[in-house]
Amino acid sequence: MAEVIEDFQALPETERLQLLLEFSQGLKPLPPQFEGHLEKMERVDECQSPVFVSVEVDESSSVHLHVSAPPEAPTTRGFAGVLQEGLEGLPAQVVLDLPGDVCHRLGLDRAVSPLRMRGMTGMLARVKRQVRVATAT
Asked: What is the similarity comment for this entry (predicted)?
């Protein structure tokens, strides 16, 4: 995730939104167990668009994030893509230790509405909650 944040911070503010849109195009499709079964995923109510997340923590404690976000919501999809790429394969404890302001560290606060920033923060909160549940003994 630190590398993703560095990529955003290295760009002038005017180009960060374009990078976010590139992340929207890189959002991976849902695996078969979730395709057509959004009821198996958790809805992110903070998002205006219908966004659903599901986290898997494998036997080595690596995190795998699956997200459904509509194509007609490129900013939201971009946030989902940032989280998916930034968190994929990280150890569960590293994900849990992420600071609460990680979404704001992308430097998009002036380019994206506060409501959309709240949506990304909500996505991260759901991910962390699901990681906590998956790693509880």
From this structure: Belongs to the SufE family.
Task: State the Cα–Cα distance between residues 76 and 81, nearest whole angstrom.
Answer: 9
| Cα–Cα distance for residue pair 66/29, rounded to 1 Å | 8
pLDDT tens digits along 92-103: 999 999 998 888
Cα 36 to chain centroid distance, Å, stands at 20
Could you give the strand order of the β-sheet that contains 52-57, starting from the edge strand earlier in sequence?
A: 42-43, 52-57, 63-68
Domains of the chain: 2-135 (3.90.1010.10)
3-state secondary structure 52-83: EEEEEECCCCEEEEEEECCCCCHHHHHHHHHH
CA 62-23-100 angle, to 5 degrees, is: 55
Look up residue 66 and give its two tokens: 């699956």
Reported as a single tens digit per residue, the pLDDT across 25-48 is: 999 999 999 999 999 999 999 998
Query: How high is the pLDDT of residue 109?
Result: 85
How large is the C-alpha radius of gyration of the chain? Answer: 14
